[in-house]
Amino acid sequence: MRSRKQTKTPAWRSLLGGCLGGGGGGGAGDKQRKVRPGGGRLSFTDLSGAAEQDLSVSLVGSNLHVFSVAELRAATRGFVSGNFLGEGGFGPVYKGFVGEGVKKGLKPQAIAVKLWDPEGAQGHKEWLAEVIFLGQLRHPNLVKLVGYCCEDEHRLLVYEYMEHGSLENHLFKRDCRRFQNGLVIRGIQEIPAVLPWSTRLNIAVGAAKGLSFLHDAEKPVIYRDFKASNILLDSNYKAKLSDFGLAKDGPEGDDTHVSTRVMGTHGYAAPEYIMTGHLTAKSDVYSFGVVLLEILTGRRSVDKTRPTREQNLVDFARPCLKDPLRLARIMDPALEGQYSARAAHQAALVAYRCLSGSAKNRPDMSAVVEALEPLLKLTDDVPLGPVGPVVGPVVLFVAAPEEEKKQEQQRAPRKVVDGRRRRPMSPKVSPRKRSAAQKEEFWVWHLPAEQKA
Q1: Are 325 and 442 in contact, with CB atoms under 8 Å apart?
Q2: Choice among 54, 225, 323, 332 that is catalytic
């Protein structure tokens, strides 16, 4: 007779039941689904009664395919190093391909397979969260979960393949690789030298729509790990959120927040979440503000290689966001001025609000989408500086008094004194008083007559 200790089953094994013994099962279409009363999304709590169910059956409308380790090993050619795409907290990711007839109802396609590393920072709980959330949530700006593998101690996740990798690699050129004939060749990935302004703005809008969808769902979801490396780009550079291992169900009813241990990535987490462990949708909004700063400046959220005062991007850049002149100085120099100054300023103001130290003063993600989407139409605006031909509205900058004085001194003729050329000293004058509005805004827009109407 077994002792109670011997017969005790871990909670996570109870959640998976048949999954643990049937990792090599067929696709989701092979089994009859059980529809949850009310048709809503299942959560961790809801799955506690699914001990005898396969996850692909329990998750309503998921269309998930259950793979075996052998099938995924074949798809990735034995997880060969040449197919290695990258590695995160959960483990390494490999490119693969599923052919005709591997799974019923699954068309041949390229896939990305995430393999659990037992020594990694994440484990079964994060794997299960990924399956639960991405198995049920569908949106153009969320990466599609094709299926999973839960066989013995193995935990794998199968996603649609995102051809252009992560936003992080495009902004910071880290661990880039070149794709050729369906394989990964070590070297420099064939991507544009610099992400154009219009592409960056489209990525920001797409990522914002993904977050807005999560927050506004009938059962809200807090992403909790929004960062550049979790924004993947498809063949058309459409942004899709990936890696839901740290996602949490949002507060419901009268609850204002979810209390949880602090997890995420340094440099992206909201200050109130770090201090209290209180998680809200506004925590994601702060993280979005950080990524928007990265898109604008081309700088990492935390960069220890920079001077001390510039290492934390938020501390360094936020004071510059409301002033167009100061903003121009911190914009990504790789853009070489090829962006809409007006759109950049408006995007910077959105970032400023998202990064408010007070969570209640941050906008909802739906408001962020409404603010950013119209900026896509401003990409024909004149670029900052004398770059290329002048087209469309003309932007004139009116310098602050100190800048005017400095420019005047630089233009002044030099006098020869004691054999040296020196500029004449300007007489001391009382500084002209300016209103608060004038101090805040130093530029003037001159639009074509037809646009003024």
Answers
A1: yes
A2: 225
Residue 23 has, within 13 A of its CA and on its CB side, a CA count of: 16
Is residue 277 over pLDDT 60?
A: yes
For residues 50 and 25, the answer to whether their CB atoms sit within 8 Å is no
Are 25 and 110 contained in the same domain? yes
Measuring CA to CA, which residue among 94, 27, 13 is closest to residue 67? 27
CA separation for the pair 75, 85 (Å, rounded): 14
> What percent of the chain is helix, strand and coil (3-state, nearest 5)?
35, 15, 45
CATH assignment of the domain containing 145 = 3.30.200.20
Q: What is the pLDDT of residues 141-188, one digit of tens each?
A: 999 999 999 888 888 999 999 999 999 999 997 444 443 333 333 433
Q: In Å, what is the CA distance from 101 to each residue of 36, 106, 108, 169, 449? A: 30, 8, 8, 34, 62
- Tell me how long the chain is: 453
Residue listed under structure tokens 């440099």:
267
pLDDT at 374 exceeding the cut of 50: yes
Q: How many domains does the chain have?
A: 3
pTM: 0.72
Burial class (CB in 10 A: 0-12, 13-18, 19+), 252: exposed
243 vs 440, residue with greater confidence: 243
Domain that holds residue 369: 199-378
* pLDDT at 199 (0 to 100): 94
Dihedral sign for Cα atoms in the order 335, 341, 342, 345: positive
pLDDT for position 1:
46
What ranges in 228-280 are assigned the alpha helix state H?
271-276
Report residue 445's pLDDT band, with 50, 70 and 90 as the boundaries: very low
Q: Give the list of residues 6+ apart from residue 389 with CB closer than 8 angstroms, or none.
A: none
Q: Which residue, chain included where needed, has tokens 């020594």? A: 119
DSSP letter string over 409-445?
HHHSPPEEETTEEEPPPPPP-PPPP--HHHHH--EEE
Final residue belonging to a domain, choices 353, 378, 403: 378
**Pick from 393, 407, 404: which is nearest to 445 by CA?**
393
Nearest to 30 by CA among 132, 106, 104: 104
Predicted local distance difference test score (pLDDT) of residue 19: 52
Instruction: With a cut of 80, say whether residue 46 has pLDDT above it.
Output: no
Active site residue 255: no
146: nearest Cα among 249, 27, 53, 15: 27
Write the DSSP symbol of residue 250: P
